[in-house]
UniProtKB/TrEMBL annotation:
This is non-specific serine/threonine protein kinase. It is a single-pass type I membrane protein. InterPro entries: Kinase-like_dom_sf, LRR_dom_sf, LRR_Rcpt-Like_S/T_Kinase, Prot_kinase_dom, Protein_kinase_ATP_BS, Ser-Thr/Tyr_kinase_cat_dom, Ser/Thr_kinase_AS. Belongs to the protein kinase superfamily. Ser/Thr protein kinase family. The lineage of its organism: Eukaryota, Viridiplantae, Streptophyta, Embryophyta, Tracheophyta. PANTHER family: LEUCINE-RICH REPEAT-CONTAINING PROTEIN DDB_G0281931-RELATED. ATP binds at K172. It comes from the Eukaryota. It comes from Glycine soja (Wild soybean). Residues 144-431 form the Protein kinase domain.
Length: 467
């Protein structure tokens, strides 16, 4: 329905909206003054006070002629005064809400959204990857409201958002400081991430870049992460059962194998952990946050500027040298498997209360050495698992978390072992090597004190072979 046909329309404020066109002067619009259309330079028409191009100028209004007084009988003067007072009161009664509404609207603080152009903004051709405006993401996340925070990590905060098409997204707001000239490098890394497409990898939907903001947009994962399902699930949610945990182990291994062997250049994750393995609607594993470590190191394109990772998941050689490789991801994956089996954190000071090791890897080795396999398994499983499958998954985890990166398998080999190919041979070989290594460690060393560190020198553990 046109606004001119709304006969009850009493208040209209279209000022400061950058509108354009001809404003009609009929219907309800004839009641309004130019104040209702202030600061809209491209509006024209008699109501606005600005003539339209090509139209004759407005004729001045006729001069005001005061009405001549009309004599009335003296008896009617009191009645007229009462009637006038009633009419004025009624007019004030009807006008008061409009006045209050107009005052409230003027007084109410408004949120202002604006986009800032990037310092370097070359034309972007990133296939299906969308470049979002900052305003779009501000609106989607309710101006990055704390109530929409899904999580916090080493790269920044993640917000739940809803786009204008109704779809739910997760918006990662990167927190690193920006340096001039980093925009092109950022776009390059974003393009690299977007080209990694696999069913077990989190798909990048889009990005936003300004001189002060770096944001990545992903599909929203309704089932959260493996970590949240293991340790932060609500009371009404069922724990992950054993078949689901096995699928998660295989799916995440396939995703990492794709990053290492099928991306050019290969992508090193550098922070593989249960919190970065997300779960889709069918509880299939989706590896998230891949590529972000290098993305955040764009200040120097050749050298890693920081050791990125989470304590308990960081491979010893990466921690000591700062050099990462696909084998550092393999180590983190092995620790993630132990999280999946035990339900515990990779690093937990609470274990000190029971005189246990704070590092999950050391804690697991200690229990295996004491042949207490049943104490390793997550109590939430309630013995609903197959012992032989648990042992095999522990074997894969220990092979992946060996101290020497050269001794760890590749992720493609891990996938084959989880599929039942080659685990028995690899485990037997590992045990033989560990027996020899243990003999060397136990031999006397007169010239030096030998300190055995479980993260550097692994001891053979007694597990039955794969079945």
């Amino acid at each position: 329905m046109p606004l001119t046909n709304i006969t009850a329309l009493q208040v209209l404020d279209l000022s400061n909206n950058q509108l354009s066109g001809v404003v009609p002067d009929n219907g309800s619009f004839s009641l309004f003054t130019p104040i209702s259309f202030n600061n809209n330079l491209d509006l024209c028409g008699p109501v606005t006070g600005h003539p339209c191009p090509g139209s004759p100028p407005f004729s001045p209004p006729p001069p005001f002629v005061p009405p001549s007084p009309i004599s009335a009988p003296e008896g009617n003067s009191a009645t007229g005064a009462i009637a006038g007072g009633v009419a004025a009161g009624a007019a004030l009664l009807f006008a008061a809400p409009a006045i209050v509404f107009a005052w409230w609207r003027r007084r109410k603080p408004q949120e202002f959204f604006f986009d800032v152009p990037a310092e370097e903004d070359p034309e972007v051709h990133l296939g299906q990857l969308k470049r979002f405006s900052l305003r779009e993401l501000q609106v989607a996340t309710d101006t990055f409201s704390n109530k929409n925070i899904l999580g916090r990590g080493g790269f920044g905060k993640v917000y739940k958002g809803r786009l204008t098409d109704g779809s739910l997204v997760a918006v990662k707001r990167l927190k690193e400081e920006r340096t001039p000239g980093g925009e092109l490098q950022f776009q390059t890394e974003v393009e690299m991430i977007s080209m990694a497409v696999h069913r077990n990898l989190l798909r990048l939907r889009g990005f936003c870049m300004t001189p002060t903001e770096r944001l990545l947009v992903y599909p929203y994962m309704a089932n959260g992460s493996v970590a949240s399902c293991l340790r932060e699930r609500p009371a009404h949610q069922q724990p992950l059962d054993w078949p689901t945990r096995k699928r998660i182990a295989l799916g995440s291994a396939r995703g990492l194998s794709y990053l290492h062997d099928h991306c050019d250049p290969k992508i090193i994750h550098r922070d593989v952990k249960a919190a970065n393995i997300l779960l889709d609607e069918e509880f299939e594993a989706v590896v998230g946050d891949f590529g972000l470590a290098k993305l955040m190191d764009y200040k120097d394109t050749h050298v890693t500027t920081a050791v990125r990772g989470t304590i308990g998941h960081i491979a010893p050689e990466y921690l000591s040298t700062g050099k990462s490789s696909e084998k550092t991801d393999v180590f983190g994956y092995g620790i993630m498997l132990l999280e999946l089996i035990t339900g515990q954190r990779a690093f937990d000071l609470a274990r000190l209360a029971n005189d246990d090791d704070v590092m999950l890897l050391d804690w697991v080795k200690g229990l295996l050495k004491e042949k207490k396999l049943e104490m390793l398994v997550d109590p939430d499983l309630h013995s609903n698992y197959i012992d032989a499958e648990v042992e095999q998954l522990i074997q894969v985890a220990l092979l992946c978390s060996q101290g020497s990166p050269m001794d760890r398998p590749k992720m493609s080999e891990v996938v084959r072992m989880l599929e039942g190919d080659g685990l028995a041979e690899r485990w037997d070989e590992w045990q033989k090597v560990e027996v020899l290594r243990q003999e060397v460690e136990l031999a006397p060393h007169p010239n030096s004190d030998w300190i055995v560190d479980s993260t550097e020198n692994l001891h053979a553990v007694e597990l039955s072979g794969p079945r």
